[in-house]
Amino acid sequence: MGKLVTLTIDGKQVTVPEGTLIVDAAKKIGIDIPVFCYHPKMEPVGMCRMCLVEIGRPVLDRASGQVVLEEDGSPKIMLSPKLETACTTPVSEGMVVIGDSVKVKDGREDILEFLLTSHPLDCPVCDKGGECPLQNLTMGFGPGESRYIYDEKMHLAKHVPLGELIFLDRERCIQCARCVRFQSEVVDEPVIGFYQRGRSLEIVTFSEPGFDSYFSGNTTDICPVGALTTADFRFGARPWELNSAASICSQCPVGCNITFNIRREARSGGQWVIKRVMPRQNEAVNEIWICDKGRFTYHYTESPERLTQPLIRKNGELTPASWDEALELVASRFRVAGDSLMTLVSGRLSNEDLFNLRQLTQGLGGHSVLYTDLAGGDLVAQVGVGPGTNFAEMGAGSAILVVASDLLEEAPIWWLRVKQAAERGATLIVLNPRPTRLDSYARHVVRYPYGSEAAAVLAMVNTLSAKRPNLPEVVNNLGRSPELQAAARAFADADNAIVLYGGEGTGLETSQALAQACANLLITTNHVQGPNNGLVGVWQRANDQGAWDMGFRPVPDLAEAMRAARAVYVVGADPAGDDPRLAETGDFLVVQELFLTGTAKLADVVLPAQAYTEREGTYTTGERRVQRFYPAMPERPASKADFAIAAQIAELLSINLEGRIPSKLMARIAESVPDYAGLSYSKLAEVSEQWPIVGRGDLYYGGTTYENSQGLGVQLIPAAQRGAVLPLGWPELPEVQIPKLGLLAVPVTRLYDRGQTVLPSKLLHQRILQPYLAIHPEDARRLRIPDGATVELSYRNTTSLVAIRFDERVPAGVILVPRSMGVPINSPQPAELRLVERVAA
Amino acid sequence: MSQYILLRHREIPDLNKLEVYRQYDGFQAFYKSVTSMKPDEVTEVVKASGLRGRGGAGFPTGMKWAFVDKKNWPHYVVANADESEPGTFKDREIMELNPFQFLEGVALTAFAVQANLAYIYLRGEFWQIAHQLEQRIAEMHSAGFLGENLFGSNYSLRIHTHLGAGAYICGEETAMLESLEGKLGQPRLRPPFPPSFGLFGKPTVVNNVETLTNVPLIIDKGAEWYRQFGTEKSPGTKVFSLSGRVNRPGNYELPLGTTFRELIFEHGQGISDDRPVKAIMAAGASSSLIVATQEALDTPMDYESVPSLGASLGSASVIVVDDTVSIPWLINKTIHFFKHESCGKCTPCREGTFWMMHLTERIAEGSAGWEDVELLRDVANQMKGKCLCALGEFSIEAVLSGIERFRNDFEQATSSPAMTDIQQTAEVGS
User: A167: which of A18, A87, A180, A201 is 20 to 30 A away, CA to CA?
Assistant: First the structure.
């Protein structure tokens, strides 16, 4: 931190770092200088002129450079003749800022009067009404009556779609450019901009589809009027009718803090419904942003397809049953299965659910299996990032390695924050088999063939400490790249460094090797201690890390394991729906779910679970931050929380589990899981002051982002930082190669997939692609397959019919298969393509 | 001694041909500078000449060059050829008829600040001039006055033209830089000023065409020679663009300090139909209205004297208004212009010009009352000192000075419900 500067604002003295803007210095001592265009997350522009204040500066003697003193010994202050913008003026020593004089008040009234001359009088029907900075500031500083003739108002279009997600009301727009600046400065996706000039200035979109950005919804939060609204919420409710509940986004491992706004409404038959999802400030996680997937995909929780009662298979048909009947059946069959019970869970479940399920399974001697194709959660628990880690604090001196991840598609907010760290000067290294959007911010970009991700990281390790004999050929080859060597050195030289590894082209086996290679790199370069050092898994689900921490592990051959188990208990996963080869199970299959999934349809017993919006719990993010979510919606009568169901089954089997009070359950977790020792719900609910200050009483600062009064979460201490032995081992390199004849099919991730938690949100349907495969046009030409054709993809013993898309960024010999998009894939596979139907391209 | 420094083509036929320009010592100053002077020496000569910016603000040119940050490279020079102030048409004549002197001025400026790239930003309507300039730039390349390692030195220079898209605001230097960067033409916050943060964020000198055209002769003949023209604080000559109700409108190059009377009555040959002068707008639409008293007519036109009349010289686009013109009508015209040209970036200008337009329209039509005149004055005062750039601040000059100095006209305009003659004038004029 630089020099400190002391100044006086409205008679109060404040000392702030040099370079602080007056408007922020005032905020720090509780003085609100009104703003519209200024936003603490963006560069000041001084356009709206709302923040005008009087500024006085000490008079300096020209000869001596000393401050001239008044007779009473106080410094002589010269007020500038004009009002100045507090949002663009940095503080200086001895400055006197006057924000409460008649001149300033008149100035604010003048600016507000100007703004209101072109603003429509539609507060009574405006979505922003009630949380609108223009409304609030008009109440605070505006003129009481209008001198502008209503007939002379300019009338403009009120329903302009900037794409199907965000709508613009041109009359309401006050041209503050926050949205335009957010897209260009913060996101670096300048897909919206201004067109025309003066009063005709208009926000337009330049992209196809309109407003093509995963972050578009944030512009509606920071819009200081009702000009930008989401198609989801507009005309949906008035803000003051809404109740709010703190929650955590369940769509990816970032763990964005969110707030659900709910109300009970006649048009939903008197039911409580979620009206919108808003970001909730957590400067160490998501700051004040969320991605559009997090904002718009909550609809699955209120889908009419939700299961409403337990089902038991009778005479081949799933028929409704009582909870008692269902649970007793399950318990009796589990007792029979004993140690041949297999519990298969996914990271969609909370830590509480997972803990109870694990206790239940262990109590019977059964097998706890995690449904995932990305390994390494155990290594993350050992050399993961520790307390104090925050991408926002990474910049010059830091290094971030992103390997095998299309981060924008896998975890958009991490992409945003990693990109910003790079823009602040952090060394960003991208290792990926094909180009991604992150490349343009990277100092080093290294390509490797699909399947060689671990080899590429080991080549970095080898560059730094070439001590290992008999290096595999693939490591040697990759290690010759000067770019890779430079990247390795930059990584080693950084003061602190984080590795994010993901699911680009990886499966269980390859990611296991990759995670170990990443751990080796971190250990070799001594980046496993202190904040902003360590390993982060870019998981496919919100709580995969928690599932690893609770003791669940993937198995190499899931199909075989499921066939072999006498009873299979599938919770929060749909293996058979994802991959028909996982449809075969042992004697007895129990599925605990929200929907009648492909797997549930095969089950002997189906148990309806509560959505996470209806209950309490915690998730552990990829950065190993444990965060609480609170119940937003009332319980559905016939469904139960996953942890409660597990506890009730356990009770019938004389295993004692906490099934009622989640906070007590957390106490048990803290007792039994060493990494979680010391955690409690009250600790997770602690908050400390965050900057910028946002929230309800102060909404013109951060828009309608919710302030965080419900908990910032707790970052776990990785084993390495508690003195555990470092898990340094040389991984077995799996044999994955692009076949000489034929192709290699590899899984990749798209943000908007066709998964169960995405598809029910109809709003996103235009953005969700139809099932497809991507291939390089050269490969397609060789196979005489035209763009858009329907092809048959076959590998092992699966075949799928799907459309093909040309993509020049796909490496030769490779087919990209997006996950959860209709084609089952969980690891790189040699595959064959056959043209089925030629479609006019 | 020749009459002209800038409009030399009026004496020398075909001065817009390279060989003719060279016959009259063309590019001698540039050759001398590059081969025998240090860049700072060129700046020092211009400083000593007292040359002030001719675009309107009258800022000392040499001082501006000296502000260029020498720790941050590369540097750029941008010639402001956006000439868009209503009533100004001097740069056009220079660029069409004395283009090489202008281009040599650009080259000298670039050498002085060690820029290897200069841009000429022309208003979109000047596409033909841009085309001609491109040809002349090509001729200069062929003749060895532009390109790499000029005259055997290690100095290189290229000049490009760039056409605006028809916005007045792009004559404002920072909006021009934004536009040149391919962005929406809106002014930037100042400070930082272009000499420290200009084109593409690099130190940049932005000078008006006329300013730059002075430079070759200043370097060639020296600061002392230049100072013999004009006044102590406003040395040199100035091209006055005279328009309005005069018998002989046009460009007149005269020493700074020439009186309004001499310009209007000698050079402009008096007022049409010998009507009395009522008002003078000395700086185009951005002017305060000067009441044309005898005293005002005898005021010298230089950067110090015009302010004593509550006005400024600006780009010296002198619009003469006689007694047939209603001031409310005139103000309605200027406000329509500013409303049309406000970029919309800052609230007071965007909303204020729009509001004022409605008021001046009603006042000019005769359908307004005195309270509307008072409201107009309020609105103008409300904008004062709050705008982001000078466009908004200048838009109220004519309004406030008009209401203050020509109160009668406004009283008349608001006294009867239908002022059909003024209405007709408005229609004819529009």
Answer: A87
Residues in chain A within 8 Å Cβ distance of B382: 110, 113-114
Q: Read off the CATH number of the domain in which B397 is found.
A: 1.20.1440.230
Substitution target from A35, A141, A197 for chain B, most B beta carbons within 10 A: A197
The domain that contains B69 carries what CATH number? 3.40.50.11540
For residues B91 and B192, membership in a common domain is answered with yes
CA distance A607 to A309: 7
Q: Cα distance from B358 to chain A (closest Cα, Å)?
A: 7
Interface contacts A/B by beta carbons within 8 Å = 90
Selecting from A83, A118, A194 the residue whose C-beta is nearest the C-beta of B351 gives A118
What would the mean pLDDT of A627-635 be, rounded to a whole number?
96
Candidate from B340, B342, B386 with C-beta closest to A111 = B386
Q: Given an 8 Å threshold on Cβ–Cβ distance, is A175 in contact with B358?
A: no
B336 touches chain A (CB under 8 A): no
Query: Is A147 touching B (CB cutoff 8 A)?
Result: yes
Answer whether B244 touches A (CB < 8 Å): no
The answer to whether residues B111 and B218 belong to one domain is yes
Identify whether residues B198 and B82 lie together within a single domain: yes
A409 - beta bridge partners?
none
pLDDT digits (tens, 9 = 90+) for A169-227: 999 999 999 999 999 999 999 999 999 999 999 999 999 999 999 999 999 999 999 99
B2: in domain: no
Q: Does A830 touch chain B (CB under 8 A)?
A: no
What range does the domain containing B294 cover? Answer: 237-322
| Cα-Cα-Cα-Cα dihedral sign, residues A388, A389, A391, A394 | positive
What is the value of ipTM here, to two decimals? 0.92
A147 to chain B, closest Cα gap in Å? 8
Provide the b/e sequence for A148-172 (b: ≥16 CB within 10 Å). Answer: beeeebeebeeebebbebbbbbbbb
Neighbours of A382 (CB within 10 A): 22
> Is there a single domain that holds both residue B365 and residue B278?
no
Please tell me the distance from the alpha carbon of residue B332 to that of residue B337, in angstroms, as a whole number. Answer: 9
Task: Please give the Cα distance from A280 to A276 (Å, whole number).
Answer: 12
Given this model, what pLDDT does residue A734 score?
A: 87
* Facing residue for A49 by CB, picked from B169, B184, B348: B348
Judgement on whether residues B81 and B198 belong to the same structural domain of the protein: yes
pLDDT band at B128 (very low <50, low <70, confident <90, very high): very high
CB–CB of A197 and B342 under 8 A?
Answer: yes
Given a cut of 70, whether residue A841 has pLDDT beyond it is no
Task: Report the percent of chain A where pLDDT is more than 70.
Answer: 99
Taking an 8 Å cut-off on Cβ atoms, the answer to whether A47 and B382 are in contact is no
B141 part of a folded domain: yes
Residue B430 is assigned to a structural domain of this protein:
no
In a domain? residue B359: yes
B31/B166 same-domain check: yes
pLDDT in tens, A129-154: 999 999 999 999 998 888 999 889 98
Examine the domain organization and report whether B252 and B179 are in the same domain.
Answer: no
Closest Cα in chain B to A177: B345
- In the sheet where A496-501 sits, what is the strand order? A444-446, A427-431, A398-403, A496-501, A534-537
Q: Do B189 and A111 touch (CB under 8 A)?
A: no
B190 at A interface, C-beta within 8 A: no
Q: Which two tokens stand for residue A214?
A: 């995963």
Domain boundary among B177, B196, B227: B227
- Alpha-carbon span B354 to A740, nearest angstrom: 70
Question: How crowded is residue A220: how many other Cβ atoms within 10 Å of its Cβ?
Answer: 26
Q: What is the count of structural domains for chain B?
A: 3
A82 touches chain B (CB under 8 A): yes
B218 and B287 share a domain? no
Q: Residue A773 and residue B44: Cα distance in Å, rounded? A: 68
